[in-house]
Structures are given as structure tokens and as C-alpha cells.
Amino acid sequence: MPQKTFLLCPGASKSGTTWIRTYLGAAEGADMGPLGEMQVWDAATVPEKAHFLMPCPPAFRRVQFALARRLGLPLRGKELRWFLQQDLTRYIPYFTGLLARPGIGLTGDVTPGYAALSADTLRRIDEGFAAEGVTVKTVFTLRDPIERAWSLLKMYRRKSRLSEDLSDREAFLAIFAPGGRGTTDPDYHVTLTRLDEVFPKNRQFVTLYETLFTPETITALSAYIGIAARPEAGGAAVNAAGDRSALPAGLAEQVFPSFAKDYETVLKRLPQAETLWPHAHLL
Fold first, then answer.
1. How many domains does the chain have?
2. What are the entry keywords (predicted)?
3. Does residue 171 form part of some domain?
4. In terms of Cα–Cα distance, which of 4, 76, 68, 72 is closest to 34?
5. Can you give the pLDDT of all 283 residues of the chain as single tens digits?
6. Per the domain annotation, does 60 fall within a domain?
7. CATH classification of the domain holding 133
8. What does each C-alpha distance from 146 to 142, 209, 263 come to in angstroms?
9. Is the link from the previous residue into 233 a cis peptide, with omega within 30 of 0?
10. Contact present, 156 and 162 (Cβ < 8 Å)
11. What is the domain range of residue 212?
12. Rounded to two decimals, what is the model's pTM?
């Protein structure tokens, strides 16, 4: 019997996860479901992510959803997310149902918010799939922490989540400087420690965002997952909108203490980050 695989990608946010989801979804024998991000476990188990909880759909939508499930028809994403969030025991049967379809050997959940999941929650997911004969493999991409933070700030600005009274520089310092309010995403070293607690190294693919789109990394990622490699896909920009202006001079030095442990942890694990991460020299 061919191996059935569930791919769990907990981010990191702003680090290529949309591309990963798109790449996997186009693979032969893959069914990643209807949603770009499932947002189930983070919304249900991490208080800081509770804003991802879906409101109860209108009655007619619930009836349509129940009928579609009964008839095996495609499910609407919003109702599916709500349905799974309401009862976490539905999560694994949903994905094993996808894997039970003819020709399907790969499914998964690419949700950057899962970087905040506890080791206990990760273990629950892993053990639940193992009980159904499904192997969980993880992928975690790591971008230069300060560059990633700047990208997050630009996203906040585009989505009008920042005060118009603050410049980008002022807002960046208010969030990411030592003593700033921070974000709901944990530091890399926290997520890596939790992944290590649950998954052996042969079920972890930890890579740098800066090399994610290279033929070498795409080939290695594909071999790890068990799909045919498509190195040419690295040239396809996915969800690449936004301001790519450089970080203002001197700003990296001001926020670096907030990220120092992440730089230290990742450089020990992936030494190539020393030359690939623009701000690693500050360590």
C-alpha cells in the first residue's frame, strides 16, 4: 500500500508559505483541500489566535454544507473551517477522507499560525494521523527575522492595521524594538524547540526562505515529501504584492536585541544563514 502523507507547514509567515501551498497543490496525487490556510488548531487552541474563529454560518449555508458532505461534493472553504473549528476530532477524518480518494497520497495544512501551536497540540495531530496509518511530515521555512518583521509591517500597513499618525519606522519600533508589543507569532527558536520535541529529524524539513525557490531546495523538498520535482516552479511569484523597499538605515540595529536568540539558534542549525541573512552579521 503506497504511503499516505500529511504535510504540516507551520510557517513561518511571510516566508514562502503561499508558494509552498501552491506547489504542493499542483503535485500529482495531491489534494490540499479548498483553503489556502485551514486556521483550525491555532484558532481553537491559542488564545492570541482566537480572532481566526469563524462565526456560525447562516442556516441555509449549514444545510448546503451538510448536503455537500453527504453527497461527497466540494465543500465551501469558510463553512469547512467553521465545521472543523467547532470540533477538533473532525480534523483528522476530514484529511484521511481526502487521502482515501483514488490516486491521492498527499494532503496537508499550510497555516503559518501553527507556529504558535504547543508541543502537546503538535503531538495530538501526529498521533492522530499515525493511528490512521498516515505519516506526518513537517516543513518550516525561516526568513531573516528582521526582514520578515519589516515585511509583516508592510502587510499591516496595506491592511490598515497601523495608526496613520505613525511612520513605518515609528510603527516598526513600537512593535519590534525591545519592550515593544510584539506580534502573536512566536520566535523561531520556540517553534523549532516544539517541533523537535515531537518530530524526529527525518520528518522535519527546515530550510531558509532565501534559498526556497532555488532548483536545489525545490528538488530536496520534493524528494522529502515524495512528489515529482518541478524546479522551474521556483520562478513563479505567488502572493508577491507589496512594498519591497529596503529597511531604513540604522533600524535593524535598534530592533536586533529582540531577535538575537533567533539568529543564534538558526545559525547553529543552518550555518549558511550567516551569509544569506542580511542582518546575521549583527550577532
1. 1
2. Transferase
3. no
4. 76
5. 478 999 999 999 999 999 999 999 999 999 999 999 999 999 999 999 999 999 999 999 999 999 999 999 999 999 999 999 999 999 999 999 999 999 999 999 999 999 999 999 999 999 999 999 999 999 999 999 999 999 999 999 998 888 888 899 999 999 999 999 988 888 999 999 999 999 999 999 999 999 999 999 999 999 999 999 999 998 865 554 444 458 899 999 999 999 999 999 999 999 999 999 999 999 9
6. yes
7. 3.40.50
8. 11, 13, 10
9. no
10. yes
11. 4-146+188-250
12. 0.93
* Residue 70 covered by a domain: yes
Only one residue has cell 550577532, namely 283
Q: Sign of dihedral through CA atoms 184, 248, 250, 212? A: positive
| Residue 163 grid coordinates | 495608526
Are 162 and 171 spatial neighbours (Cβ–Cβ below 8 Å)?
yes
